[in-house]
Amino acid sequence: MFIFRWLFFILISTNVFAGQQDKELYGSSNSSVKKTATTRMAPGYSDTTVIRFDYKQSALFHAFTFEAIDSIVSILLANNKITLTIEGYAYKDEGSDTICYYLSLNRALFLQTYILGRGVDSSRIISLIAYGNTRQKIHKKDKGGLTINCKAEIVLNYPPKPIIATEQDKDEDGIVDSEDKCPDHFGRLENKGCPVENMVIVPFAIQESALYPMTYKVLDSVVAVLKENPGYTVSIEGHAYRSEGIQAVCDRLAK
After folding, report:
1. Which residues contact 86 (CB under 8 A, 6 or more apart)?
2. Domain boundary among 113, 140, 159
3. How, if at all, do strands 162-166 and 125-130 pair?
4. Does 149 lie in the same domain as 52?
5. By residue range, what is the domain housing residue 234?
6. Contact by Cβ (8 Å): 86, 185
7. Which CATH number fits the domain that encloses residue 80?
């Protein structure tokens, strides 16, 4: 279904001469827009921080690694709904499969002990996994292009956030369907969302201000009525939908 820009012709029976016209130009803004919202929950998301260990070491010695862990601890202490998973890894050259397994386990345990010692409750750690050297081939490479798993990863699991969703407005007249008496027809707020009597709607294609053949028949019918009734006047309103561009673009299209 196309989203159209509407050009309104409101035919009004009056005694004023046909040469007198009121012209109103509208951009994408609409003073009759009324918004209501409903709340739903977005899916939660995760964020992973890599903590590097020295070759064949399961303890940390560098200040920058503790700064990284402390930043994670501060996040956990600020929001008690965030949980975490700790995953330990070992590089394939650090020893046998058994040695690599316990090396990866001890790296994960080191981080667990440090985090718990900073005041994070143990219930926040949902799992602690030792991968040994089994996953090194499918993990990301470092800046030097080497796939070295002398590391542990801390995965923070964030809770879902509420999303404010605007109610449906099928006819795109700026009045939500729950308050629109004519939800399938473009209308006005002052008319409870229903079309104004004697209004003729002329559609345009998206981001276009030129007419296509079908719309000329609509305009010809308006011209015929005006010729037969010289006392009628006409008001012309140009509108642009907000998705057609920025405010300046919408103003130009409407004009």
Report:
1. 108, 111, 112, 115, 125, 127, 128, 129, 152, 153, 154, 155
2. 159
3. unpaired
4. yes
5. 5-38+167-254
6. no
7. 3.30.1330.60
SS3 228: helix
> Which pLDDT tens digit goes with each residue over 56-108?
898 988 888 888 899 999 999 999 999 999 999 988 888 898 999 999 999 99
Amino acid at 8: F
- The one-letter amino acid at 200: V
Of 171, 164, 165, 166, nearest to 241 by C-alpha is: 171
Q: Whole-structure pTM over 0.85, yes or no?
A: no
Q: What is 157-189 written as a DSSP string?
A: EEPP-EEEEEPP-TT-SSB-GGG-SSTTS---G
| Amino acid, single-letter form, for residue 227 | K
- Per-residue model confidence as pLDDT tens digits over 177-207: 888 888 888 777 778 888 777 778 888 888 8
* Cα–Cα distance, 29 to 247 (Å, whole number): 8
